[in-house]
């Protein structure tokens, strides 16, 4: 249900706790005694997955994390907020460790001010996390807290549909001017969270509803930085469902999902949604920014909405989207299918080697593995985008070092730094690009804090027959790239290297 990649290349994965025991036992002595389902639960509802070794170990969450939210702070700690019942006010921390691999969830005594179930989180330039919305929570708050603990946000009440809501898990993006883009239902605004005021309302997106349970997905397209540090800011929203689709789905009638995608230039003097269509309709899909700056759309269904038993006809084919392709007929490309339906409560994230980790799916009110159309799915899959095909292996670069790093791989804002890399075979200099990707907290078809920056290249040097050095500008400010850990990729001729982690401070 929830996944977060950490800077030690391990992934925290977790699900709800109130279904009863899982089939993974916690270490001796670790049990929960406040469960809604059973009086004593000594099984794990969270794991730490090691990508390199394809191994995992159980973790212990203390309260229900069902439909919660998260963001990684500048120190690399996952700040995880809210959930259900006993977990709906909770703040939890997971800090990665490498020495003894004994790190586990810590639940703070401090609580959220109000319950947050189906909220969204975003890391801010000062390192705090803003927590926005949730079911019947028309407000936002911060961790660590402000002097004022909670801020009423009428926009969320205005975007709530009777019987359906369609404004949960709002789409959030930190903008380069320091304000916050907020999208819910079909509307979007720019929020000055420092002064608690809406400074701009953008046009309503045409056609269907887009946020939970209509559940489309969204990204902010890559920020391509200029020599001065500026960038065009464009948000994209795809898929969703018609108003009333959730009510119909609950009654067993599944309406076709939306095929439409909209893109909007946030800072345009007269912004408008520019619409185009995916190859198929999609609800509950994940949109993932790839190191190349392209987008992959995967998971979900062609009919229905999010919710128990509320969708049918899974979409097995991922779709590649090329945002800079001038020919609209060539922007979408249908890729090879999976054999596993990934529907309600599935997730997907980008890995440091350029693959996509996909896992989960449970459209039932309990775990159900047999005699159902879409069984509860416990597997993980690795999806290799087309750039990892064997015929492109000779183009794949290897990063050898990142120069000008401080201790703990720290890079300062506005600093120039250089990447040395090699190519496996001799070939003429091709097209190069350096990208920085913030790993997302992914749940319910939205990658919170997902962000990709294309860095400005100052100089490219050939050092030897196979060796090169590229110098780039770091992002200019914390508004453009919030502080914290990023994966840096060197992309050659459309093929990315394995990333290296840097810490931007």
UniProtKB/TrEMBL annotation:
Glyoxal oxidase N-terminal domain span: 1-387
Annotated Galactose oxidase-like Early set domain residues: 396-503
Keywords: Signal
InterPro entries (alphabetical): Gal_Oxase/kelch_b-propeller (IPR011043), Gal_Oxidase_central_sf (IPR037293), Glyoxal_oxidase_N (IPR009880), GO-like_E_set (IPR015202), Ig-like_fold (IPR013783), Ig_E-set (IPR014756)
Domain of life: Eukaryota
SUPFAM superfamilies xref list: E set domains, Galactose oxidase, central domain
Signal found in the keyword field: yes
Keyword Signal: yes
Stated name of the protein: Glyoxal oxidase
